[in-house]
Every structure is written in structure tokens, then in C-alpha cells.
Amino acid sequence: QVQLQESGPGLLKPSQTLSLTCTVSGASLQTNGYYWSWIRQSSGNGLEWIGAIGYTGTSYYSRSLETRTSISRETSKNQFTLQLNSVTAEDTAVYYCTAGIWGWGQGVQVTVSS
What we know:
This protein has no helices and 10 strands. By secondary structure, the protein is mainly beta. The protein is globular, with a radius of gyration of 13 Å.
């Protein structure tokens, strides 16, 4: 069974950079066919896909966020990381890392406030 766990700061100020790490167990980030995604949900809204990194290391981004987003991985630690630059209050949400049907993290609340 694939298990994922998000970690990172829960409170940021506007213009700062959000950095979240997802630690994966039960599968390698390089497992053929796996895509590792970041998704968020803000209060009152549905799920928003932010981007993903595939088993080959190629990253994919939502068009609405791609200018501010970077997703990378550290295969030796079996971790992948989200960086979101220049955050605003609109980036306040619960952030999840996921391997789709194979597993989801519990989510981490991120609040952007001055």
C-alpha cells in the first residue's frame, strides 16, 4: 500500500514562497506508470490540481499556476516537493500530495495572512 505524508509550514505571509514536501512509502517515485501530484482545496471550493511529477522525473503544471510553481523530487529520500512562489491569500487551502487511486496524504492546511 502506498502511503504519503505532507510536511511544511502552515502559515505564510503574502509574497513568500510555499514549500511542501511529500514523503512516500510503499512505492518508489520511479515506479513505472506512477504520477505524483499536488492538489489543493480551499474553503468552499472543489479540488484544484496544481501539478505532478512523473516516474521519469518530468514535471507537469496547471496552466493557471505554472508561472509560480515548481515540482521536484529527491529519489534517494523518496520525496517530492512543491514550491509555490509569491503566495497570496488566494493560495490559502488544504494541500494534498497524491498518487491518484493508489493513495493520498492526509493534507496540510496552509494559510497565507499578513
